[in-house]
Amino acid sequence: MSQEIPYKIYLNENEIPKQWYNVRADMKNKPAPLLKPGTHEPLKVEDLEPIFCTELAKQELDDTTPYFDIPDEIKGFYKMYRPSPVVRAYCLEKALGTPAHIYYKFEGNNTSGSHKLNSAIAQAYYAKQQGLKGVTTETGAGQWGTALSMACAYFGLDCKVYMVKVSYEQKPFRREVMRTYGASVTPSPSMDTDIGRKINEEFPGTTGSLGCAISEAVEVAVKNPGYRYVLGSVLGQVLLHQSIIGLEAKAALDKYNVKPDIIIGCAGGGSNLGGLISPFVGQMLRGEEKYRIIAVEPASCPSLTRGKYVYDFCDTGKVTPLAKMYTLGSGYIPAPNHAGGLRYHGMSSIVSQLYDDGYLEATSVKQTDVFEAAEMFARTEGILPAPESSHAIRVAIDEAMKCKETGEEKNILFGLTGTGYFDLVAYQKYNDGQMEDYIPTDEEIAASLAKCPKI
Amino acid sequence: MSQEIPYKIYLNENEIPKQWYNVRADMKNKPAPLLKPGTHEPLKVEDLEPIFCTELAKQELDDTTPYFDIPDEIKGFYKMYRPSPVVRAYCLEKALGTPAHIYYKFEGNNTSGSHKLNSAIAQAYYAKQQGLKGVTTETGAGQWGTALSMACAYFGLDCKVYMVKVSYEQKPFRREVMRTYGASVTPSPSMDTDIGRKINEEFPGTTGSLGCAISEAVEVAVKNPGYRYVLGSVLGQVLLHQSIIGLEAKAALDKYNVKPDIIIGCAGGGSNLGGLISPFVGQMLRGEEKYRIIAVEPASCPSLTRGKYVYDFCDTGKVTPLAKMYTLGSGYIPAPNHAGGLRYHGMSSIVSQLYDDGYLEATSVKQTDVFEAAEMFARTEGILPAPESSHAIRVAIDEAMKCKETGEEKNILFGLTGTGYFDLVAYQKYNDGQMEDYIPTDEEIAASLAKCPKI
Questions:
Q1: Which of A24, A81, A138, B302 lies 20 to 30 angstroms, CA to CA, from A11?
Q2: Is B111 close to A419, i.e. CB distance below 8 A?
Q3: How far apart are CA A97 and CA B394, in angstroms?
Q4: Quick check: helix, strand or coil at residue A307?
Q5: Residue A144 pLDDT
Q6: Measured distance CA(A228)–CA(A265) in Å, rounded
Q7: Contacts of A6 in chain B (CB under 8 A)
Q8: What is the ipTM of this complex?
């Protein structure tokens, strides 16, 4: 126990996990099945095959297989940017004067700048294996689109990204990274698709929405032979791929006999949180160990803390299957002054069920408090964090300060999902004292939830 | 020799070098001394003390001490982002089909995004040690200003950055990173200084130049008690601090018994190149080993390949000491279509002398060829390289392709100095096919050189 902990704990390359862990296999209460929008029947693999690669459709519906071998080609790609380090935040601890030991799993050390690459490379691989020409997707802020572009470049797949028009125009650098990786990036709504043309006609001058971009990407995938649609969060397959985060983090901490008392992750659709906590929750589900797990969401988009656990559409356009999840209603859109990601109306069915069963807590934080924590972290730990990741930083700091009061030497682990190089418009607002907070009223949330389908 | 080389060779934290190496100590032909502009007498420490910290002034003039202990506080900071990896470019090799083994030392894995942090933290440390309030500097593209802001935040020093006005306006994100680290960033020419007011009066609406920003930063340092001026390249002290790059690279390769046949670095003022090659050149100077070393400069700013080895001013404003160096004349400014950094008119006196003595070769490359290499590298190795670093990538690829022709299994090491997150305007130009090349005529260079002082 008294072995000195380095600043950065790197696994050796041969210690990178060789299997993903499917937490659903250990859940007694399985996540509720996806339902067909029309008939409300549970979806089968063949229902998903026109949209997803076959192998990914199987992963999506598999809630019994605990481990999936990671294909060699993906393990090869991992070596470009994995293992990612678990960092002991010595400098932050010192600045806080806390007896707590703070660790973070840093997933931003790759050009896409976030953990999204872990699932992008897996989804691109299975598309390549199936002999497809390419994949389509949507992107908002651009982390997922960038990750997917990198992954497709590696496998020589075509990559068509529908980027919400307002982001396309306001985030030209994100767009250029994707183009540098060979992706075609189209502002959405476009004139390339039926749904895009329809929306442009109905709402001339619209700057688009994620819901519309999803609809366009799905339409293009379904209509073009050799293409499938891919998605970067929410889905069970994504959490499966992202389990690499938690598996590596656990292996690194185990090396030094460190057991985290508190595990903290930011939560939008649940891809990072679900991935980080999977092996730890697995131990809890099997009765082997206890951890305190905290999901942190923005006060402006509080699906776990203020949403309802019901069946809802996964997209604003209501073309996707129905999922049972904590949701604010598929029409819910965070206020325009909300700066970071984490703007999804719902939460991964897996995370939702675990939360409902009491395996994790949830809390929400205001964005000015988030950026205050981000700036302190940048100055002490030398990494400019993404606004998303900074939600977890905020709560890690708060918990560490509680330890200062009580004198407890707790081990705190949080997920630092990515870097903020492309979020400097938001940092500028904060630096200029012009960032505002928004907390939806109960009435707003109730009105949005009232539109959920009755199932 | 047949031991398998991992993708990334990381030293352990206790293997990070504990001393910087001063290559001047092993040079038989020392770099020519800095001269006072008026009298042409060699400068002494006391002449430099009003501008530089005392300890840095000593380092600047010391050409006999081979090793300097790295202070504990700097070693502590190093652990935030060092050791940086030596990466075996397996994916690039595969894409090229070359038998060569390509390695790169990656210095971009810190928030400042480049190797500049290595000297920034050292210079900030000595300022703090001397009890100063803060430091001043200039920045053009912003890599150095960002690095210095991070270093000053760590030591609680005030940091005043004069940023060339055109960059201040065109690179708001760079500016915001510096502000997030607590630096004050002023567009230059400003109305805060005599020289700034004078230039604004003479040239209304000017967008500034590096030469002017240097003059402003020096003026503010000299006039404000408790402040000194710091610089990110060219100087002997900077190359001393940057020797950490070469020392780590050599230690990592030695671990696997890899001897580089060719060592390649991009060259602007010489900070990265000088740091990377120091320990290798040291072996050559001591007659222990032979390497082929290649300095790569932009065709639009070719100081080594087309300049003259004479005494010249270090700045455009002609307020600094005179240095003997390969120079294009202190009034030389690369064409406006030049995208990346590496725009300094001269070259570190140390690198200049080594080049003059035949220890290294130099070559120049066109920027469209540089971005072609950058894009290939991004797609195969997954890192979006800075345009500066991509000069070295270009020549590494060219040398690897020669190995393909000859079948030679050479070991190629190059310096990947930083990432290109803030250079996406240039990438966009390249992606859109709108990037142009510029090669100065002999007449242009001769006219600029004619203005060098006659010494």
A1: A24
A2: yes
A3: 48
A4: coil
A5: 95
A6: 30
A7: 12-13, 79
A8: 0.88
